[in-house]
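Hey, can you fold this one?
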Amino acid sequence: MNIEKYSFGVGDRFCRQGKAQLQAIIQARQAGVEIVPVWNKSFREHSIIGTNPVDTRREADHAVKQLNWHEGYYVDADHIHLKNVEGFIEASNFFTLDVAEEIAKPAEPQTIQQFIADCKSYLGELRIAGIEESFSISTELLTAIGNKFLSAVQQAGKIYRRITQRKGEDRFVTEVSMDESDLPQTPVELFFILKMLAQQNIPVQTIAPKFTGRFNKGVDYVGDARTFEKEFRDDIAVIRCAVKKFGLPANLKLSVHSGSDKFSIYAPIHRSLKDSGAGVHIKTAGTTWLEEIIGLAEAGGQGLDIAKEIYTQAYDHCEQLCAPYATVIDIDPARLPDPVQVEGWDEQQYTSALRHDPGNPGYNRHFRQLLHVGYKIAAQMGRRYLDAVEKYETVIARNVTENLFERHIKRIFLSPQ
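Sure. Predicted structure:
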């Protein structure tokens, strides 16, 4: 199973927006860019909401059938570990092996020594086509890279083999995720990570490194876009080199996690893909959930009431909701509007604060980030929330499709702004 050149992760907290998401992919095809959808949802999200991987599979299959989609599509076991992979194996055909927790955990000394021995041919100056500077490779550097990443790659191998035991080889797409770590991987580190993956016989098709800057949930990239562009281009060059040297799949490509709403790096990504001819996987998730809330608020009446209630509850439980996401959100509590104030808002005031439009004077990124992690409140509402989503499906779907196509797909693949 080989994933296509361009793929787009369309996460959906409540498994209700599959058709609206796929409609954005169809609009992309009509505009001349071929993208395949990947419905992704993590173990944590399933646990909080009370769904399971087969629900995501049903959503994807239903959307594909309803809209007569005849191209490829995937269901991603997002950020899975060895301890929770089993529940995803039957329903998924894309697996994101998250090994960030294993980074910097010590591997066995003999395996480090074996890794260094396997890399002796690279000692000295390493040049990679497409990267201006060269890299000085020493035994000390290889030891440091081995100590930092070998245990993580070995863990990826264990997860991959567990999946193949149940599912068989060549029946799924493998992604390796190292983005949820403290420091970005350098090009030379990525080069040797890919060598380790090849030695584990993992046919990795997408890899998610940690880039410089902050990829906070639901808001724009925080960092120097020029630095990001150089890293992105260098990583493309590393992948191209590693494919040739290590026998990795020819379609191996970069994956950008927390890729939704990162408007300031979409133009750099667009230029890099155009110049290199490389593919890419962009992961989005919470942006669809936020469009559900925007749609409810825009609908007014009961929808707006529920949107206000979700914010009030999220405000009251801010610390609890934010704790699991502390490394990927930056919320200033002093910038959060008081729920009493929000209670008096009309449809336009609420949607202006929440919709990701930095040019709107009413936009509040702190408000948006809190609601991004506040989906647990909606889950606790049960049928009351889901019934409202179904009642206002038309306005919600319009917002979901427009957000994915106009703000994301168009800017990345068609006409960056």
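The two ends are 34 Å apart (CA to CA). Let me know if you want another pass with a different chain boundary.
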